[in-house]
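Lines hold sequence, tokenised fold; shown next:
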Amino acid sequence: AIGNLAANSGVDIGDVDVTSVAQPTAGVQLTKTVATSAYQCDSNAIKSGFYVLADSGNSAPVYIGFTSGVTTSNGYPLEAGKDRFLVLDNTNRLYYISANSSDKLHIIGS
């Protein structure tokens, strides 16, 4: 649909073409056991981004990053029960690591 859009000062900025965005038709839900070496998440195409949640029973933070070089020193820490929303097009852009090998990371997105 085409409509007029005015700036805050009432200045006409011309016609604006607004198109609809296709909504995702499926989602992805994963639970990963985290290890003491960095791992890349499985490949799942995503349209709207995804949440990453450190399991509430974890005994140490899970560290996330966007390269295979993520470590417990340079990764973004997720304490037990904490989450982050990531605007990425594929879950395989996420890497994770922990100080122990029994923690879990939950991922859900569409």
About this structure: Strands lie at 2-6, 12-17, 28-33, 39-40, 50-54, 62-65, 76-78, 83-86, 95-98, 104-109. The radius of gyration is 19 Å. The CA atoms of residues 27 and 35 lie 25 Å apart.
